[in-house]
Design goal:
Chain lengths: 286, 286
């Protein structure tokens, strides 16, 4: 049996199953201090009869360099208690099994790539919610570079109808996350995007910022699809607006542009946990 | 003997040598219509005694999908006569040898990756000249995605002291190439950047646009280095300004940020032709 954890800032999703697409049990626990959260997760896996390998897709930033002594750690997060937490090492020790480890969004991108059934394909997964994050799969492989993608922190051009909002990112002010995340929407309009009238300018403004991220991914590394999940992305009509705006930004120029797509997750809300199962499967093979 | 072509819009650089870092002869011909340019190049290789494999790093856009019947073609370029030119097929036919084929900037990125002597490293190569292009190597592999990078066409934020220039890109107006290429600099200031006084605001404006591209590459795919070549990049002090501005945009946030670098090419002006030699070497092995 494979085990998987989708480790988020507010909840941990746990699952077990014989294969990534066959989850036979699932459990959600609230994220508290590391010691109690990790112990509760380990106890749940033990109660399922144990696992032969574990995959973890985690909030970050993470150390993913296998050569580093800090591999498997959450690194510099401002989340109290979690900085420098050796999450992969904890489970490797307590469960005694191989552990696969990547960002939550790379895990989701890996799962969406598999679900697309185009081996060797290239896509990005963006989550637009409490924060904005992105994972990238290029020619079938998750991208790490020298660390991992942090697409939420690129700087989109300011929308002309949104010139006076300073943005809420503590590091960058008006980066993508500072402008288009759920809390950024609440900060200037007082309600979630899905509760604003369909003729409210917020819809075009937020779609424009997300579309700029999509176009940037098409232009910089030529992904074919951008898959968009997360709470804000549930807003009716948003994905269609983003797709239309991204096409306008391209203006028919980019090679491969006819195959560009901006879509909802094929796995609905399961991209992250299925991706973590795939990390477990890969860890079991090594 | 390996052969290499760096195929540019104004000139073709041709070279032969027993290994990528050992060029024993080199020749430059002006780019004219495809038939005469390609025939002259083929004649030069024949005069060198022939080659066992050829690598081509070409201006684009290109078809790089090995499954496509159009593999090896320049596709939609506005350059008269060159659209739909089967450049790789021409040389495969006339020379009867294996041909490696990639963008000029991916070739340069491959060569700079090798010159950095960090196998599995991640970097981007930007050329800032008549146009702006970029190649990307991630974890040791050149990036193609579903086509190839076109980093010159991302949209940087407009600099506050450069608000009134519309940009010169025929597709996007004020994309990076439309704002920061050599012709864009000439269009609004009448002289190349290197001939403007050191206290002219153009230096900070152009550095800001290029720095946004660097930061975008750090944030989206976590390259460790951005190597910047091309005519505009020769301007004294520019690379240092770009590096400083890219650090300011990061604001200490990105994982791996301490290892970020913005640098001149290790191979000076030879990145492209050496990269094309490496494409030949790889083609000879397959």
């Amino acid at each position: 049996m494979l085990g998987a954890i989708e480790a988020g800032g507010t909840k941990f999703v746990l699952a077990v199953g014989p294969a990534p697409d066959r989850l036979v049990a699932r459990h959600v626990i609230p994220t508290r201090a590391p010691a109690e959260t990790l112990a509760e997760a380990a106890a749940w896996f033990a109660a399922q009869g144990g696992v032969s390998a574990l995959g973890i897709g985690s909030f970050g930033p993470l150390e993913l360099d296998r050569q580093s002594p800090k591999w498997g750690h959450i690194t510099t997060t401002p989340k109290p208690g979690w900085a420098d937490c050796d999450i992969a090492g904890f489970f490797a020790g307590v469960l005694g099994v191989p552990v696969g480890f990547d960002t939550d969004v790379n895990a989701a991108a890996i799962a969406e790539h598999a679900a697309a059934r185009r081996p060797g394909g290239s896509l990005a997964y963006l989550t637009i919610g409490t924060g904005i994050g992105g994972g990238v799969v290029l020619e079938g492989r998750p991208v790490h570079g020298i660390a991992h993608p942090e697409i939420g922190h690129i700087y989109p051009r300011r929308h002309p109808q949104d010139a006076n909002f300073a943005g809420i990112c503590p590091h960058h002010g008006d980066c993508l996350e500072g402008l288009a995340s759920g809390p950024a929407i609440l900060a200037r309009w007082g309600r979630p995007l899905s509760e604003l009238p369909t003729d409210h300018p917020a819809h075009a403004i937020i779609a424009d910022y997300i579309a700029q991220a999509c176009y940037t991914l098409f232009a910089t590394v030529a992904v074919g699809e951008v898959v968009i999940g997360g709470g804000v992305a549930q807003t009716p009509g948003l994905i269609e607006r983003v797709a239309e705006r991204a096409r306008a930004l391209d203006a028919g120029y980019l090679p491969g542009g006819k195959r560009h797509a901006v879509i909802r997750p094929r796995l609905d809300g399961d991209s992250g946990i299925v991706g973590a199962m795939m990390l477990a499967e890969a860890a079991a093979r090594t």
